[in-house]
Amino acid sequence: MGGEGVAGLWYLEPRTSLGWVTGGTRPPPFLSSVLPAVPAPAMGLELYLDLLSQPCRAVYIFARKNRIPFELRTVEVLKGQNHSDDFVQVNPLRKVPALKDGDFTLAESVAILLYLARKYEAPDHWYPQDLQARARVDEYLSWQHTALRVSCTRAMWQKMMLPVFLGQRVPPETLETTLAALDRCLQLLEDMFLKGQDFLAGPRISVADLVAITELMHPVSAGCDIFKSRPKLAAWRQRVEAAVGEDLFREAHAAIMKAKDLPPADTAVKEKLKPLAQLFM
Amino acid sequence: MGLELYLDLLSQPCRAIYIFAKKNRIPFELRTVDLRKGQHLSDTFAHVNPLQKVPVLKDGDFILTESVAILLYLARQYKVPDHWYPRDLQACARVDEYLAWQHTALRRNCLRALWHKVMLPVFLGEPVSPEMLATTLAELDMALQVLEGKFLQDKAFLTGPHISLADLVAITELMHPVGAGCQVFKGRPNLAAWRQRVEAAVGEVLFQEAHEVILKAKDSQPADPTLKQKMLPKVLAMIQ
């Protein structure tokens, strides 16, 4: 924030002058005619996130870990805030995460992660220059959309959100099928991606690991003990948490880990979320 | 052994890779994996890709799955013209955004349209209820609206003034319901004009060659009972 000349001072030192508030507001009209025209301070990077959402957590962790300066704009999906007029301007697809960088808006967590990695020149290991190493990250980021992402979302919603939050009964056979599918995905994660490596795409942590770990915390938050009897995956989880930093990891997951304590939704919310709930059955 | 691409042009992502490689004169050995003959389920192919899916790239010992990853690898390895995957930060992000969105949106709907309208009944002898088909086509319609309204808008191509990987991936997807007899461009003049531009940029001959197989999908020979038994659960999982 800053500004040149007299007008800038009004923005920076409001309380020592005539006491009006800054934050991108213009001086009162009676002063506009004597002050030079100064554009409102440009808004920096804004990240529209709901930490209840897996891809939002991946973006949050990445930005914080790499000390990328941003304004956090919380969008609570369970309250329908993704349908607000303001948010639809940012992302007409009405989904989180979304990014706004000046006039530039961007949806899709994978696109956002890569944009941030490039713009802020994150350390190479996050999205390596080496062609084959990079291809391994791309391969994971592509595969996960219709694989781990789907089974983690379904598991969490069917085990917890649907019955507890929305009061909707999920037939035991449905939940069983979902957990079996999750189990198969986890096996693929271990056999096809992790294999004997320390991280999913090689010896160092990359955006692939961030995307994966934040997915896995979804069923974990619903009480699915997915790391039990999977020592390889559990060890990988420890490494990812250590690489990210325990505090940041815990902070990013505070909301989802408390999701099981959410009070049941009221009737209005239940009605609004019905179509969303149908998707997860 | 040089670059090998394991493809079946019946599959949308395989067509995108085929067109991209040919257009950019990338030298490769085409290894056809005939899905309708169950060749993807063979032990030999399992050595190439244990997930039993196409497309697959094999470059010496390096094996890569996932069409988006393959397209990006080829673009970088063979240093193709910038417009395919621009260096410019924001232009590149627009391509990434499309490539991410399409997995669970247009891709899914185009796949379901083909299988519900043609492949399940004709190839696997599994009837599909009119209600299910109607739902699928309605969902496809919504995806087309997003394609036009959010991505294409009034631009020449999906992510800007020049053709990119996003357009290749999108057009090959749309040819799936076209192959099933769905008139996706009817009543969508903007989209139809974009299609013309993409075909012209790719080259008519190459475009037609890549789409010969899908355009004859409705003439698929019914699968024998053994193959049907093997394929049906996998197909149902794939199109869910």
Automatic annotation (TrEMBL), chain A:
Start and end residues of each GST C-terminal domain: 130-264
Record GO cellular component, one term: cytoplasm
Entry's Gene Ontology molecular function annotations: glutathione transferase activity
Pfam families listed in its UniProt record: GST_C (PF00043), GST_N (PF02798)
Assigned keywords, A-Z: Cytoplasm
Leading EC class: transferase
EC id: 2.5.1.18
Catalytic activity: RX + glutathione = an S-substituted glutathione + a halide anion + H(+)
Residue ranges constituting the GST N-terminal domain according to the UniProt record: 43-124
GO biological process: glutathione metabolic process
Stored InterPro entries: Glutathione-S-Trfase_C-like, Glutathione-S-Trfase_C_sf, Glutathione_S-Trfase, Glutathione_S-Trfase_N, GST_C, GST_C_Theta, GST_N_Theta, GST_Theta
Annotated compartments: Cytoplasm
Protein family according to the UniProt entry: Belongs to the GST superfamily. Theta family.
Name under which the protein is recorded: glutathione transferase
Originating species: Odocoileus virginianus
Automatic annotation (TrEMBL), chain B:
Name of protein: glutathione transferase
Encoding gene per record: LOC110146500
GO CC terms in record: cytoplasm
GO MF, one example: glutathione transferase activity
Pfam family, one: GST_N
Swiss-Prot/TrEMBL keywords: Cytoplasm
Keyword Cytoplasm: yes
Signal peptide range in chain numbering: none
EC number: 2.5.1.18
Residues covered by the GST C-terminal domain: 88-226
Catalysis performed (reactions): RX + glutathione = an S-substituted glutathione + a halide anion + H(+)
Main subcellular location: cytoplasm
